[in-house]
Amino acid sequence: MPGYSTRTLLVHVGGHAFHLRVLSDLQQFSDPDGHGERLGISPAQWSLFGQLWPAGRLLAQAMATADVAGKRILEVGCGIGLASLVLQQRGAEIVASDIHPLAEPFLAYNSALNALDSVHYRQMDWDLPLETLGRFDMIIASDVLYERGHAALLAEVVGRHAHSVAEVVVSDPGRGNSAPFSRHLAAQGFSVTERRQALDGEPDVPRGRLLHYRRDDHAVGAPTP
């Protein structure tokens, strides 16, 4: 027995139906060998990866129509990974990452549940460089700025893994930490556009903002190719 219970959701994104195995509720917890605790995941945080949050749906919607042709894409803090599944369904080159020890098996299960090849996955601790991961044309994330220090940490991930010409797309529910993140990325040469976003089928209920950062190879702060 895994020590937690799950349920299956049916979610429509970009005209396609996706089935997702998620945790039954926020009360689920199972860390028998202390793996999550050693990674710094508290019992209160443990179940957060296993839910489909509005920001995750917003990011998935954006990826359903984004220009991804020829781009190598990294999802940071993927959790259940709906955006990565959408990109996999579109045939994009996507790598999903998270620190949670169950993110990979849940993502593999959900790939199979939707008759997709398993999304390529790498476990990532934002504090630790992962040189073998390489660089990407697009880095995406949803609701990852929920602690003050995350702005600087995520900006460091971008600095290590974004090409000189790159995009960063973040769906943010408005926790108050996006401004310092934007300042960090501006120092790396990124400009930002922002728009309020609603979920498909709920046009009158904005669920957050979509922050779209772009950098060209002439920007101050861009890495040398």
Automatic annotation (TrEMBL):
Pfam families from the UniProt entry: Methyltransf_16 (PF10294)
Keywords: Cytoplasm, Methyltransferase, Transferase
Main location: cytoplasm
Subcellular location: Cytoplasm
Swiss-Prot/TrEMBL GO biological process terms: methylation
Lineage: superkingdom: Bacteria
Single annotated GO MF: calmodulin-lysine N-methyltransferase activity
EC number: 2.1.1.60
GO cellular component: cytoplasm
Protein name, as recorded: Calmodulin-lysine N-methyltransferase
Source taxonomy: Bacteria, Pseudomonadati, Pseudomonadota, Gammaproteobacteria, Lysobacterales
